[in-house]
Amino acid sequence: MSTATPPRLGPRAETLALGSLLIAIAVLAMKAVAAWLTGSVALFADALESVVNVTAAGAALAAIRFAAIPPDANHPYGHAKAEYFSAVLEGALIIAAALAIIHQAWSSLSSLHVPFSPAAGLAVSAVAALINGIWATVLTRRGAVLKSPALLADARHLWSDVVTSVGVILGVGLVALTGILWLDPLLAALTAVNILWSGWHLLRESVGGLMDEAVSDGPLSRIRAIITADAEGAIEAHDLRTRHAGRWTFVEFHLVVPGEMSVSDAHGICDRVEAALKDELGNAVITIHVEPDVKAKHKGVLVL
């Protein structure tokens, strides 16, 4: 037996994604002004990363809207995996931006100069970083509650952007104070390395979701413990399989019951196990295949 397919996600994730897009545009404009005021290649690199933020936020909004489409004949398990495509795109864009920044930093070595208006430019950049930090906190909390890969990916990228911005602000201020001009392209290159590392981790996690990666050891142990505790009347559960699809966790296994047990009693055990798993996992789709005792494999989850 199986539970119903996932229902449509409410508008909260879409609202947050739209907010990310609008904030990303505003922050990009502020960072562009900061780069223009100073002529700093490091601040230009920071602004270039915000171009990625805008593109990624737009992709996340589109993915969340598509993921919220109810299941249909062609997609009976829903469209939740669409969010992973957004996260993969964001990871790829981050890596592309990092490579572009490295190229720009290298090219700027031949035209080093003192920042033009460092105080004004750094002040604008600091405000942009503060806005990103506040919004990253909101996305981290709400993304975890909604179990949205797209929102969590956006939050992780924004936190990386905040760290980068703080480092760039301190570094460009140091360049202005000391006159050591090569620090500017060096900071840009270090910014690119940090962005590259963030993009790689994001890309790897997102591809894992697309590849139906199983739940981690902690949740898997709790799933096994719930089956053991709540399947009283059954004999064993075997061939347990799990996977994630966006905010949904899919669990399926074979439940062995005594051969003489009625269908009604076996169904009651399944209902009890499903309810307990949903209480633990939240958004979950549970599929249980009931088998008679002659199918017992004497391995897997033994029921107490």
TrEMBL record:
<protein>
    <recommendedName>
        <fullName>Protein p34</fullName>
    </recommendedName>
</protein>
<feature type="transmembrane region" description="Helical">
    <location>
        <begin position="82"/>
        <end position="106"/>
    </location>
</feature>
<dbReference type="GO" id="GO:0006882">
    <property type="term" value="P:intracellular zinc ion homeostasis"/>
</dbReference>
<dbReference type="GO" id="GO:0005886">
    <property type="term" value="C:plasma membrane"/>
</dbReference>
<dbReference type="InterPro" id="IPR058533">
    <property type="entry name" value="Cation_efflux_TM"/>
</dbReference>
<feature type="domain" description="Cation efflux protein transmembrane">
    <location>
        <begin position="20"/>
        <end position="211"/>
    </location>
</feature>
<feature type="domain" description="Cation efflux protein cytoplasmic">
    <location>
        <begin position="221"/>
        <end position="292"/>
    </location>
</feature>
<dbReference type="GO" id="GO:0015093">
    <property type="term" value="F:ferrous iron transmembrane transporter activity"/>
</dbReference>
<dbReference type="InterPro" id="IPR002524">
    <property type="entry name" value="Cation_efflux"/>
</dbReference>
<dbReference type="Pfam" id="PF16916">
    <property type="entry name" value="ZT_dimer"/>
</dbReference>
<comment type="similarity">
    <text>Belongs to the cation diffusion facilitator (CDF) transporter (TC 2.A.4) family.</text>
</comment>
<keyword id="KW-1003">Cell membrane</keyword>
<dbReference type="InterPro" id="IPR027470">
    <property type="entry name" value="Cation_efflux_CTD"/>
</dbReference>
<keyword id="KW-0813">Transport</keyword>
<keyword id="KW-1133">Transmembrane helix</keyword>
<dbReference type="Pfam" id="PF01545">
    <property type="entry name" value="Cation_efflux"/>
</dbReference>
<dbReference type="GO" id="GO:0015341">
    <property type="term" value="F:zinc efflux antiporter activity"/>
</dbReference>
<feature type="transmembrane region" description="Helical">
    <location>
        <begin position="21"/>
        <end position="45"/>
    </location>
</feature>
<feature type="transmembrane region" description="Helical">
    <location>
        <begin position="158"/>
        <end position="180"/>
    </location>
</feature>
<feature type="transmembrane region" description="Helical">
    <location>
        <begin position="118"/>
        <end position="138"/>
    </location>
</feature>
<dbReference type="GO" id="GO:0015086">
    <property type="term" value="F:cadmium ion transmembrane transporter activity"/>
</dbReference>
<dbReference type="InterPro" id="IPR027469">
    <property type="entry name" value="Cation_efflux_TMD_sf"/>
</dbReference>
<keyword id="KW-0472">Membrane</keyword>
<keyword id="KW-0812">Transmembrane</keyword>
<dbReference type="InterPro" id="IPR050291">
    <property type="entry name" value="CDF_Transporter"/>
</dbReference>
<dbReference type="InterPro" id="IPR036837">
    <property type="entry name" value="Cation_efflux_CTD_sf"/>
</dbReference>
